[in-house]
Amino acid sequence: MAVSRRIGHAIHAFDTVDSTQAVLARLAGDGAAEGTVVTARHQTAGRGRRGRQWWDTPGESVLMSVLLQPSLPTAQAPQLSLVAGLAVAEALAAAAGVAAQIRWPNDVLVGGRKVCGVLPEAVSRGDGRIGHVLLGIGINVDQSEFPPDLRHAATSLRLVTGTAHDQRQLLAAVLDALDRRYGEWLAGGFAELREEWRRWTSTLGERVRTGDGREGVAVDVDETGALLVDAGLDGLTRVVSQVGPAAS
């Protein structure tokens, strides 16, 4: 018997929106079902992590937001960055033939440059559990150039492979991978995905900066998805990713 699909059963496709996160927040407020997806060819007010603006040119990116409603403690919401990063890396390998790597907590890189960003935003219930999560994913697909302030850090599938890519096929691959990995996370938590995530990451072994400004070497992630950093003190420093509040 086929397992019913959680993610991608309803897709709302737009040409231009303020942000897919904002559109999905409105749909969530109107009672949209888990797994509802919003896509757009262009965002006029796209958001990245820590309030940064997400830059895109019309029609050159896969831009989506996915509504998730896991009935779990809000403290587990940051793990969805890692779940989504794993799904995107796998989808890029399968659909575009690129060797992607995950940079903890929420970027996907190709050749050391950012090709995808993940933005989870959560609404909490009064009992400390997740009401819903707006999971934003932006993938640079067909850009041939970037603004000067992004050129050193960003890339696109076209720049990496030299060819254009079918965005509908790429969207389908990401939703398929996310549907599978999200189901595994619901069943077993991040511990279920930890070994696979390690295989795809570029972060372990790199020097990173902790939240209090110290530098150290990232040596592992624990079963909650927190980054373990050797900063030269007794034991390891545990760094936890944060999830911003979603519009309700």
Q: Care to describe what's here?
A:
By secondary structure, the chain is of the alpha+beta class. It folds into 2 domains: 11-203, BirA Bifunctional Protein, domain 2, CATH 3.30.930; 207-239, no CATH class. It contains 5 helices and 12 strands. The protein has helices at 20-29, 79-96, 157-161, 167-188, 194-200; strands at 11-17, 37-43, 61-68, 100-103, 107-110, 113-124, 130-140, 207-209, 215-221, 227-230, 237-239, 244-245. Strand 9 and strand 10 (227-230) form a beta hairpin. The longest helix is centred in the last third of the chain and has 22 residues, at 167-188. It is globular. It starts with 10 loop residues before the first strand and ends with a strand. The mean pLDDT is 93.
A few lines on this structure:
With 248 residues, this protein is α+β, with helices and mostly antiparallel strands. The chain is 25% helix and 29% strand.
What is the fold-level CATH name, i.e. the topology of the largest domain?
BirA Bifunctional Protein, domain 2
* Parts with pLDDT < 50 across at least 5 consecutive residues: none
Biggest beta sheet attributes? 8 strands, mixed
CATH superfamily of the largest domain: Bira Bifunctional Protein, Domain 2
Strand content: 25-35%
| Global structural class | alpha+beta
Order of helices and strands: EHEEHEEEEHHHEEEEE
N-to-C span = 36 Å
Summarize the amount of helix as a percent range: 25-40%
Looking at the overall shape, the CATH architecture of the largest domain is 2-Layer Sandwich
Domain count: the total is 2
- Count of beta strands: 12
Average pLDDT, rounded to a whole number, is 93
CA radius of gyration: 17 Å
* Apparent shape: globular
> In CATH's first tier, which class of the largest domain applies?
Alpha Beta
Number of helical elements: 5
